[in-house]
User: What shape does this take?
Amino acid sequence: MSQKLPLDFYQRDTLRVAEELLGKKLVHKVNSKIILSGLITETEAYLGIEDPACHTFRNRRSPRTESMFLPGGHAYIYFIYGLHFCFNVVTTLRSPEAVLIRGLLPLEGIPMMMCSRKTTHTENLTNGPGKLCQALQITKALDGLILNSESLFISEYPITLTPDQVQVDTRVGIDFAGDAAHWPLRFRIDPSLLL
DNA sequence: GGCCCGATCGTCT
DNA sequence: GACGATCGGGCCA
Assistant: This one.
């Protein structure tokens, strides 16, 4: 029921991983005890060396992107806009591809999330890639971590999504990527189901 | 070494 | 809808 996803879940085609991560549960266990978790509601696929929007486009490789070159099932976390972190899961076995987690539905540790997000209400805690990292206390310190570790993992969750409950769209914030800005690589659970 | 800009968010109009 | 915050990375010299 709350089984961690096996590493071979991630070591497959990036599009399938992006879509099948919807409805799974992302868990960050802080200090071996405080559990912060949320249901994955939105993802984006980044397709590696042939994807102009991907950090590893044309096989760019640097200290920042190094964890994308690890086998599928590792975390790739980077710092953006001088303010925020974004959390991705590395996919496939040998290609530097990943899935960006763009949205969660908060499940466990909501009071702590409110504290981390510096807010007194429960709305908008994790409905964005930067927000969910802040809420779940995900920082660069977790970059490169394997996702079957005790502190950071994704697990099964007892819901079933039908194809008509999944919306497919173009990715967000990558207008610079030309043609790739139109690729249908964003997946999300129909927002009306989450109300 | 310098310059430009980003897989974002919150606030203000 | 617009904009400022804030800083590291990528790229060119």
